[in-house]
Amino acid sequence: MLTSNFNEENSMTEHSQVIEEYLLTLYKLNRAGDLAKAVTLAKRLDTSPPTVHATISRMQRDGLVEVKKSKELVLTKEGQKIAEDIAYRHNLSEYFLCNTLGIPWYEVHQHAHRLEHAMTPIVVQKLAEFLGKPEFCPHGTPMPGTNLPENTITLMESKPGTTVEIAMIGEALEDSVDLMKILHEHRIMPGNLHKVLEKTEVMRTVSLESKDGTSSLPFHVAEKIFVLEVPKD
Ligand SMILES: [Zn+2]
Ligand SMILES: [Zn+2]
Q: Which ligand is nearest to the CA of 134?
């Protein structure tokens, strides 16, 4: 029983690292509500459009992705399953690197990015058990199958005068360690409270105040930070 299970899962992880990367990127675009097309993938993966087209054809042939008439790329059931598996391995690795090995939360993404492709199903299972089956990565991203609370909004949508609790740093921001360090310096991390001071169209910034001081973030970053409004008492 255990053996057959293992083999089944094993065949799921046989895809090349490149294919896994594509699946994960499509999954993230999907999760962020962004339209996924070959051009978007080329940009995100910093790859030439012809290469992307060739890989997409291969994935189409293998039944991992469908290309709609609108050129939108949609994961098949199989593709979605594998993507969730990689996303899980990624988030679990980040949690381990941060909470067990003590690597700062603002740079675990880069390391997890390597590790996620090297983990066998038994390692994933044992690591999850060892870590107590965490539900979120250190950036607040929910594991596949878990969701953020329904009343989560972006920092951009929050109203000046309200206090917010940081819920999640959008995955697109994790790619820049420099930016993540700035967020860290200003204590903009999951669980921390900040008061929204103002949003200025002229400077295109949102300014915040916490017990550690004030900070201001450009709109394009504020759009990718997810928060929960703290009710006034
Ligand atoms: Zn990450
Ligand atoms: Zn993360």
A: 2
